[in-house]
Write a structure and sequence with these properties.
Layout: H1 3-19, E1 29-34, E2 37-40, E3 56-59, H2 74-83, E4 89-93, H3 96-103, E5 125-126, H4 134-143, E6 149-152, E7 156-161, H5 164-185, H6 195-205
Helix pairs in contact: 2-4, 3-5
């Protein structure tokens, strides 16, 4: 895709996040990898006011083009792209149930086989750090080891994928899993799947879909 097309895709993804209830107002951010860096939503701009020309182009060394500042969480995006070559797009949201678990500093265990869509037998919760800091990015990278999504303590969710559609879909899936897990806790907690079963699921899910 051309950069112009990617800019439009970032705007569409950001608005879709609000439309499906994953984010309130200006919260969260979206990015996509481009040659030499990435495109990311600007800081403090309501998604309804986004335009392709307002999407910020950043280089991997941390500088950016244009007059609008990038999202305060640009370090997480940059560091994921630097560490995980398979990451082509990233979505960060403050979705209700997943953020509720993050505020309790709880991850999502293997209570349902679909936990495996995030790449492992759990969805970890990263240790807390102040938003927009390098420490938060470092903590997120640790929680994402062997995973494509994690919770951020007292903050929200980060998910990445091979494209914007995949990253968005994973963020939605994490929120539904978080909701199901929260509901099951009201009935005394779920029965968890064992390590051997989750390994079978992880192998099967690699060939899931078309």
């Amino acid at each position: 895709m051309s950069e112009a097309s990617l800019r439009r895709a970032v705007v569409i993804a950001a608005r879709s996040i609000n439309d499906v209830g994953l984010n309130p107002g200006k919260a969260g951010n979206v990015s996509v990898r481009v040659r030499g860096g990435f495109l990311i939503t600007p800081s403090g701009v309501a998604y309804g006011r986004l335009r392709p020309e307002r999407i910020v182009r950043m280089r991997m060394r941390g500088d950016y083009e244009g007059r609008l500042k990038p999202s305060s969480e640009w370090r997480i995006h940059r560091d994921i792209y630097a560490r995980r070559k398979e990451a082509r797009a990233i979505v960060h949201v403050h979705s209700p149930y997943a953020t509720a678990l993050a505020c309790a500093r709880r991850g999502i265990p293997a209570f349902h086989y679909m936990v495996a869509v995030a790449g492992g037998d759990s969805i970890r919760c990263a240790r807390y750090a102040t938003f927009g800091t390098q420490r938060l990015s470092d903590n997120a990278l640790a929680a994402l080891e062997g995973r494509r999504a994690c919770l951020l303590a007292n903050h929200g969710v980060v998910a990445f994928g091979a494209d914007l559609e995949a990253a968005f879909a994973l963020a939605v899936e994490v929120e539904f899993l978080a909701m199901q897990y929260c509901l099951s806790l009201q009935f005394g907690g779920p029965s968890r799947l064992g390590a051997a079963e989750m390994q079978r699921v992880l192998r099967k899910i690699q060939s899931y879909g078309q």
